[in-house]
Structure formats: C-alpha cells, structure tokens
Amino acid sequence: MRPPLWIPAWLLLLHGCATARLPQAANARTDIRDCSTDPPYLPPTATDTTARVAALRGAMQALGAQAYVVPATDAHMSEYISARDARLGWLTGFTGSAGTAVVTQDKAALWTDSRYWTQAERQLDCNWELQRTTWIESIAMWILEAVPVGGNISLDPFLFSIDTWNSYRQALQGSGRILLPIETNLVDQVWGDQRPPAGSGEIYSLPEEFTGSSWQEKVARIRQEMEQHVRHPTAVLLSGLEETAWLFNLRGDDIPYNPVFYSYTLLTNTSISLFVGEQRLAAAARSSLRAACPGPLCVELREYGQAPEHLRQYVQGNVTVWLGTEYTTYGLYSLIPQEKLLEDSYSPVMLAKAVKNSREQDLLRAAHVRDAVAVIQYLLWLEKTVPQGEVDEFLGAQRMDALRQAQEHSRGPSFQSISASGLNAALAHYSPSNGSSRQLSVDEMYLADTGGQYLDGTTDITRTVHWGTPTPLQKEAYTRVLMGNIDLSRLIFPPNTAGRVIESFARRPLWNVGLNYGHGTGHGIGNFLSVHEWPVGFQSNNVPLTAGMFTSIEPGYYQDGEFGIRIEDIALVVEAQTEHQSGENPFLTFEVVSLVPYDRNLIDISLLSPEQVRYLNTYYESIRARVGPELQRQQLQEEYDWLQRSTEPFPLGRAAATAGTGTTGALALATLLSALLPGLQA
Amino acid sequence: MRPPLWIPAWLLLLHGCATARLPQAANARTDIRDCSTDPPYLPPTATDTTARVAALRGAMQALGAQAYVVPATDAHMSEYISARDARLGWLTGFTGSAGTAVVTQDKAALWTDSRYWTQAERQLDCNWELQRTTWIESIAMWILEAVPVGGNISLDPFLFSIDTWNSYRQALQGSGRILLPIETNLVDQVWGDQRPPAGSGEIYSLPEEFTGSSWQEKVARIRQEMEQHVRHPTAVLLSGLEETAWLFNLRGDDIPYNPVFYSYTLLTNTSISLFVGEQRLAAAARSSLRAACPGPLCVELREYGQAPEHLRQYVQGNVTVWLGTEYTTYGLYSLIPQEKLLEDSYSPVMLAKAVKNSREQDLLRAAHVRDAVAVIQYLLWLEKTVPQGEVDEFLGAQRMDALRQAQEHSRGPSFQSISASGLNAALAHYSPSNGSSRQLSVDEMYLADTGGQYLDGTTDITRTVHWGTPTPLQKEAYTRVLMGNIDLSRLIFPPNTAGRVIESFARRPLWNVGLNYGHGTGHGIGNFLSVHEWPVGFQSNNVPLTAGMFTSIEPGYYQDGEFGIRIEDIALVVEAQTEHQSGENPFLTFEVVSLVPYDRNLIDISLLSPEQVRYLNTYYESIRARVGPELQRQQLQEEYDWLQRSTEPFPLGRAAATAGTGTTGALALATLLSALLPGLQA
C-alpha cells in the first residue's frame, strides 16, 4: 500500500515539491482558499469552522486553557481511525491522515506535511493558518509566541503517545508555560451529539483454519515470556488494537480496512481482562473466551471505557506492568508508577505477532496466490480496455476491488486503492475520487497500489505499467526501481540485521545516477490484520529481521508533474543457503510471496546484471508454478496465457551481449557505469 | 587503527569466540589464574590487589557506600587515558581499555568484553570475579544481588557520561537502592601519592601553516551559530579534549598518541574561559590568547580544576548552556538547571571540527602522501626481510614507527601499532609486546594496522599481506573484504545520508557467502588530533555524512585461530558527478586519500566485477600520480619501482573472461553466484 508514513526530513525535502502541484487544477484560483481578499475566497471544498472553533474556545476558557492541541490519531495510535475519532477533521475541515491543530483564543493553526498542503488549502477556511511542517519544535515555537508565560497548554493525554507527549514537554521546558493534561476531550465536548456513535458491529472469532495457534496457546506463550523476563512483570498492557485482535483471534470492523475493534487488554499472570463491550461479542467468541472461567484462562469482559480505572486499581498492588512505548498513550502510561513500569518499544505480543509461524506463513502465501489472480485479471483487463479510452482512475480502482472481492475468503480491500495515472502517480499518496479522476491512456504510465483482506491473509502490491511507448527516462527509472527491488529481495544478510541498515540496497541503482525516492522501503503486514503492521520493516524504529517476518519491499521513483513509479512486493524472511556459516544461526534472505510479473514494456534488460536477470527468471518460474495452476483451477485461460507471455524468461545472453551498448536511453555519462554490472557468465 | 569500539551485541556473538583463544599460550594452566585451587594459582602477570581493595572498602565504609563503581575512562570520556586516570588498572590489575569494576564489602567484579577476557584472566588476582559482558543491566543485576534494599551505590559523577549515568539510574529504579554521587573519587583517595602526577608538558600553538583557520575565526563562527540557534544559547561548554584543542589551535601531550591536554572551555557570547593551567602554555600561545584582552576575544585562563565551580556560578544567571551529551559527564551536566540546558548529541564545536575546510583537506591529503611513503617502505622491507626469518611482530611495529618518524612533520604514531601474524590477526585488537611476539613468515598472513601523527594530519591505514601461497579461503576472504572496501568507497549517495545506512555495502561481498566481521566499518579522523574522531563514521550514533568529512573505511574478516584480514583506508566525503540531480544539493561519494596498493598476491581478480576492477585501476593511477613523485623526491628508487609493479593495472578482460570459471577456490555453491557480477563491457 502507500509507502511507510515515516519519512526522514531530508527525504521530505527531496520529495516535497512533488505535492505542491495540483493534479488536475485547471485554475488554481478557484480551487484553493484565498484569505487575502475581503471577504476571503473559499472554494466549495472548504468547511465553515467558525462556530466549532468558537465553541472550543468557550470550553477552553472554562477550563483556563490558553491553547488546546488536537492530534489526528485515536487512543490506540491507529493509522486508520473511525469517523468518531476524526476530531481533527471535524474541527478544521481538513481530512488528511496526518496533522495537528492548535487553537488559542485568537489564533488557530494546522500543521501537516507536504503530501497534504494542497488538500489543506482546499479544505480549510480562513480561521486556520496552514503550517507547512510537522515538527513538534515548530508547533511549540508557535505556541510560545501565542501563549504568554504562565499560560496552560492543554492536551488530551489519551490521544498522545508517550514520545510525543515528552517531545512537547521537552520543547516547552523552561519556557514558563504549563503542559496541562485534560482527560475530558474538549473537541468531543463541543462536537456533542453530532459526533458519530461508537462502533457496534459484531466481534467474531477467526475460524480455526485461519489461525496460527489458539488464543490459549498465545496467552500461555506470553505468560511464559513474562516469567522468563529478568524483571518478572506481572502483567502486559495491550493498547494496540491489533494486539488484542491477534491475541484472542478475534476480528471486528470498527476501523476502515483494518478488521479490528476498539479494545484494551490487561493480561496478568493470573487473570485476563479484555476491555470490550460484552454484548458486542458473537456468541461463539464469548463462549470460547469464557470456557475456562473461573481460572487463569478465563477472560473477564469489561467495558472499553473501564480500562484506565481498572489499570489504576491494578497498579496499587505489588505489580510490574509491561507495555510498548511506541503506541501506548501518555494517559495510560502516566497511571503507572515509574517503578512498576517495564518499558519496551513494543510489547511481547507485538513482537510475537510479527514472527509468523509456519501455519501463518502458509496462510499468507495462499492468500497471495489468489490475490495474484485478481491482480493479473486486472492488468489484462486494463491492457484490453485502456486503449479504447474507457477507463479512468476511479473506475480502475473499483474494478480492482471487485476482482479481489470475487476471490475466495475475501473481506474487501486492505486500504483505499491508489490508482494513479500520469502526473498523479508522482503524488505518493494519491487516491482518485469519483468525478475528478484522470483518464488512463496508452500515452501515460499508470500506478496501481492495492491490497486485499482475506480470512487467511492481508495483501499489498504495487505494479506500474505503460501500454504505449515509455520515454527513455521512464524506462530507465522503472528499470532502476526494479533493480533496487531485486537487489534487496535477493540480499543475503546475517540474522538479527535491522532493516534500516540494508534498505539502501533498494536505492543504490537510483543513487548511482543521482535519483532517489522520498519514502520508506517497506513495512510489516498482518494475517488478516493491518496492512501496515509494526514493528517490522526497514525504518529506524523497526526491530531486527527474523525468519518468519513478512515485509513489503517497495522502492519507487517520482518525477514531479510527470509520472510516478513504485514496484512493491511482499516478502517473507527465510533462512539462506550459504557456503560458509558464521555464528550459530544461518544467514537470512527474502522469499517474495507477491506473485505478479512486472511490465516487460518498461524493463531495459541491458541495465540488469546477469545475476539480476537470473533472479528475475527464477522469480518468474515460481509465479508460473504457483499462480498458473490457480488460474487454471479458476478457468481463467486468457489470464493463464497472459501469465505465460509475461513470465517468459529473459535471455541472459542479451543482458550480457548488449551490456553498455544498448538502450541506456537518457544515460550518457561515465559515472553511470558504476551501476552497470552486466557481464558474461559461464 | 583498531576498528571502532562500538560493536552490536549480535556481532560480538559472532566474533566473541575469536578472543577466547590464547595467541601463543603453550600451556593455558600457567598462563592464567586458577582460583579453584588452594592456594589459588596466579600467573606472574597478575597483580596483588588485596591491599588496594581493602583500602577502598575502608573509604567506602567511611562514606556509607555499599558498592562503588569504577569505570575505565576519564573525565572527558577520552578513548586513550593518561596513567593518572588509569584507576581501573591500578585497582584491579587489568589494563584493557574497556571495563567496569564494582566493589562491595565482600565482593569485587570486573566486567569487560570478549576482546579482553584472556587478558583479564592473566592480570586479575582472585579478589576479582570476571564477568564476561559489558551490559549495564548485567552490572546492575549483580549489584542488586550484592547490595541490600536501602543500600547506597556510589559513583564519581565526573567519570560517567550522562547516558551511562541514566542507564544505571534506570536499571536501579524502583529497586530501593540509592544511586549516590560522591564527588571525591575514592580510588584517587586510596591511591594517594602513588598516583601519577598530572600532565605538565608544554601546550603550544599549532603553526599557522598547519591550521585551517585562526582560533578567532572559529570562535566567531561558533558564536554565530549560538546567535542563530532558535534557543539562543548564551554559552557552549566544551569538555571533549579535542574540542578545546581544535578551537584554539593548541596541542599538548597529556594523553598517549593524541596531542591533547586536560582542559575545559566555557565559550559564552561575551567571554571565553579556558580551564588549563596558565603556566602550562607556551609564551606564544599565551600571548595569542591574551592579545585582545579585555574584550570578547580575550581568553581568560583558569585552573583546570575550577571548571565545575565556574560553571556553577555561571548558571546562576539568565543563561542557556549548550553541550554535547555524548561525552559530557553527568557531574557537569547536573550542575546546570534543566531549563538552562540546550542538549545535543554533539556540541557545535564537535560538528564544526568534523567538516574539514579545503585548507584542512589539503593538509590531510599531504600527510597521507608522506605516510604512504613510509608504509610502502615498510611493505618492501618486509618483502625482503621476512623470507630470511628475521622479523617478528614487535620488530615490525618498531620498524614501521621508525619509518614514519623519519617523514617530515612527524609527531609519532597515532595509536599503538597493531602488527599481527597468523592467528594473532584474528584478535581484532592485538598488539605485540617485546618478548612474546610471533615470527613473521611466508607461510602466514600478516596484518599491520598503523598510523601516524603529523603536524598536518593524522593517518590510519591497514594492509594485510601474504608473502607465500595463501590458501583458497584466505584469498577468497581477502578479495571479498577488498570488494566491500571498494563497493563502499565508490558508492554514490544522497547528501545527509547517515553512515549506518550505507555501511552494509562494505559487508555484502562477505554476507553473500555467509561471512561477516564483528566490528564497525569506520570512524572519523582528525587533523593532528585523535585517530578516532567523533562524530563521523558508520555507526548508529554518527551524524549524517557531509562533504568535507574524513572517515576510515575498514571491512575485515577474522578466522578464529587461523588468520585475520582488514583493509583500511581513509576517505574524504566529496561531491559526486551524476547524470541527474535530485534536490538542491549534489549527491556525495568518497575520495580515498590513503595511497598504498593492496597485496596482489591475495586478490582473486576473477571475483571482481568490471566496475570494481575499473575502480581499482583508477585508484592505482592516483597512487602513482601522487606518491610516485614523492618517492622520487625522497630518492627512494627501489620503493618507486615496487610501487610501479604493485599498481600495474589489472586487465579488465581477465575479470570478464574468467568470470565464474576461474579461481573461486573454496567456493562452489550456486548461491555464491549472487556476488559474482563480472561481465563484458563495451
């Protein structure tokens, strides 16, 4: 799906300019607000927030808060949030997924990153300043100017992670302003009964055939880790929604695209408290959880809202609570006395979930075979339909979603499909909407980043295609992105290597000619859970790679205002076969489980080394071996023929023979040669 | 020099076993202590510490300290320390560079890493347990067992970095034990008048021809950074010895190998306090520092020991003190109220020092040309002398040092020379001593990791050679280490890339066959300053790479009990020429400034890709162009001829033609092919 959210500042700088352009704006004047005129000009996409902001200011005044900070996330640091938690969107009108608002008695500002600057100018009214950064230091500086010494800066502590809270505290330290937690959310208060209701959909047990182990086994394993830990924690607190869903093999639909439900869990050495309305549980789920009551495997069901109070009482005792600081809120954290805390970046549940057992691996592999069928159907359909000029981005996305939906065990898309043609694909997070969607054309590149939820797995794949004649630069850039994908996928590396120290292998073919991409290289993925699953991936806060982890590998290239390329596969970390062995454990490598061929029309095979070609051919063999039979089983003969054509082995001799003399296109300088590693191999 | 000290735990695991062997111990029983016998057996290398430990216990008792923690470092977190600061060595007998001792009333233990386990068993007497780890968590657990609840654990706060102090605090948190700072160092107290005196050598100004800019220019620049910083710090506190030496262009000899002197600096926006005995300054230095008195460029000279008290007084005012947390002690840090602190990992002086201006770059380049002459002399001398069986490791190191000493502007070695033959080279930090030194032989590999101090620069280079017939594994491993060195050296990468995300390029050729090395890949280096200069390098706490930085690039391979390989060069970060440009700033690459050819006898050219061969030939051309004339100037004709022979270009055709069929030696499996990227290029 869309690449990992975390983007280092220097990459944002590189990439930032891409999003300053309006994809299709014929006339920028009517498209975005203009607060310099009197009266200000507001486009029809803007929301009038005057009454809302005034109401919030009233609530702030009543509590003596000179500033109020509103984040974009929910109490579980979820990536997608429910409508009920879209406080930032309701207050400001801005619906982007990342942002922070601050309101004082006479000012109001929204901070967001470059992906969303144009969207913000379309959606904000003139009550709001737009701040084109997301650094907490920048927010704090604004606050320091707006709030006098002695003033209170208020936040809902249940909406800020420990780290974010501490960043605010540090930024305001010594300034004479007070960071004041207010547990009653002021936006909720003024939102009132207009606020969407809490999720009430049924929470159900995953059928046993789709689980890696029973919830009782998982609980026993986590308790064993607690016992073996040197600090002997008495409890693990789970506030990530995926943690509870995974632990109990439960699923729900409180959040779009992610089959989770609002919940907390306090798993102690003697008891289990699951904070979720009992009435929401399907009968079978409830009886499974209650089968061993009373006893250490009896799950006590408590109301969702009782979690803080229950925790407060629990920590009165002689206990130690283990939690993951990356996604636990400061509100919960601050309830636990420091000496009773065992802090890790991720809870043992998060870490256990990240390493799939062989059953879970097989499930995910199987989901990817059927997913490949749907994607292949889509690519073939595009190939036939686009030349007739009948497809736009939105229609394409709908078609893709429908093809997935038709596959066995499907539970809908795993995120909002990215279907982007031409210059729109240069916006890394573009999604089309009905009515403002670009036509697909044989004259442009097209990028589809889509994924599915299946009972046996979550998928996420990006393919970029061109049905006409790509420019030399398009072909070169595509080939280099592919070379990066291949080089990372075939890398052999020691056990416990952190993803961040190897992700540059995916960038090097681009770096060699002065190009790069402005996002992360991959993220973990769940078994019918979140498509961005912590803590696996290639970023600085990801844990070391271990056999059994799944991650996306998704380098890209974005040419501002012209085109965008991304090639994304899901890969499983597996043990490698090596001539030698250092240390006790074998080295690791990747097995790519996404099974859809790349666009031959965009590959300049002469740029590839023989090893890259050999790898590609081996990968194509595995696609044929695994997807071919499924296509036949589903009686998709035309797709089967397409697959055979698309996975024809590339001649190794060609890569060797044409090396350095062939279709290097836009390339000319000698410095480029350092990326050209083709040759003749016996 | 010896590779960077920081070693990730997983690498220690890989590498740890290497040091468990005794390099030459004919009989382990007499070589190391045996505390299980009665009386215990102690080798002659052990120190009787009974009286020292008893005296320390007395001092502890007087102050109510149940445990006392003694680190290996000094008050400046120096890598090398003076004899006066060798408290750990005096107390325990153990003279390794890394370790921590803890003493209670009835127990005493030393923690050190695998490099030093054997040495510790030789040097400790039976008062001491040896703990084979360096984790603070392990030290804390030992303390928790040894000290009852309510007990005091005492430390000298001026010998612990902020981070280390906080780690102890965190590890003991909630345990009921108290972390008690005692400013009077108890080891010093019991050491008494046996403790070596403080350094008293003259501190002198570096001649202007060897400086990049005047100290006044440097001070002005730092003050400008203070003004421009959003927090408007009023002072910068310098506690790293290199910081003060660099800022004032002063040098001294308080510490072996590093031309620095004990000092602190408090640079404020209106004044400059240099804490170093005035009488130690050479007259010219004193008059330079005092030329503009009184005034903002007047350097007030205060006694070294006055720094804490002066700082205490300074922070009474309305001030903000900027400091680097990586190397400032907790003792100084805790004097500054939190709201008056501006914390960064490194001070602006440390960062300014790391980026050499063009003058400094030229100076360092020039030093490397003369240094190459000395190394080439040494390699030729070895080639002629070793076959006669007349050289051992110690003699070799002496010869190398003498050859450097004869070069212009020499100021001695920049670290203790590592001269290691055969299995001794598998110990990454081995240095020979007179009398227990291994003979060099045509039947073994030999590793020399040496460096020099010159008025114009500091050098550090490692070459590994074999004068006879290397085994297939030796040749393969050497070639792969070289390939890693080449691949990192020729990498093109975006500006502001952190070294940690690219250092794997130096490992990949080894990884491909299941091999690795257990140390970091490089470290910054100074201009006649430290050979390990923070904060440049490839480790996680190094800053992003910027044009003008110098770093070593030093992959290796160590075969336990058999041989060791390291190939180390110093490289300058320079702008790269690329076909395209992303972002505002050009991409970067490295210019290798070490100018000594590699051992042709150990290179299996068929493993190299054409690009690697081409890079190597270009590098050899630059060696010829730069070192050749200097050899001629010094009338070293034999060395000149040797250089010509040793830098003959490698045939590109050979790499291409023999690819995959040649002398791959110990390699056979198909998986190895992924490292073989040779080919035929037009």
Automatic annotation (TrEMBL), chains A, B:
Similarity comment text for this entry: Belongs to the peptidase M24B family.
Taxonomic path: Eukaryota, Metazoa, Chordata, Craniata, Vertebrata
Residue ranges of domain Creatinase N-terminal in the record: 52-175
Cofactor(s) listed in the protein's UniProt record: Zn(2+)
Subcellular location: Cell membrane
Major enzyme class: hydrolase
Source organism of the structure: Amazona collaria
Catalysed reaction, written as an equation: Release of any N-terminal amino acid, including proline, that is linked to proline, even from a dipeptide or tripeptide
Positions of the Peptidase M24 domain: 363-574
Protein name as it appears in the record: Xaa-Pro aminopeptidase 2
Claim: Cell membrane is one of the keywords in the record: yes
PANTHER family: XAA-PRO AMINOPEPTIDASE 1, XAA-PRO AMINOPEPTIDASE 2
Keywords tagged on the record: Aminopeptidase, Cell membrane, Glycoprotein, GPI-anchor, Hydrolase, Lipoprotein, Membrane, Metal-binding, Protease, Signal, Zinc
Signal peptide boundaries: 1-20
An example Gene Ontology biological process: proteolysis
Functional description taken from the UniProt entry: Membrane-bound metalloprotease which catalyzes the removal of a penultimate prolyl residue from the N-termini of peptides, such as Arg-Pro-Pro. May play a role in the metabolism of the vasodilator bradykinin.
Cytoplasm keyword on record: no
EC number from the UniProt entry: 3.4.11.9
GO molecular function terms listed in the Swiss-Prot or TrEMBL record: metal ion binding; metalloaminopeptidase activity
GO CC annotations on file: plasma membrane; side of membrane
Top-rank taxon: Eukaryota
Lipid bilayer topology: Lipid-anchor; GPI-anchor
Known partners and oligomeric status: Homotrimer.
Residue ranges annotated for the Peptidase M24 C-terminal domain, each copy included: 586-650
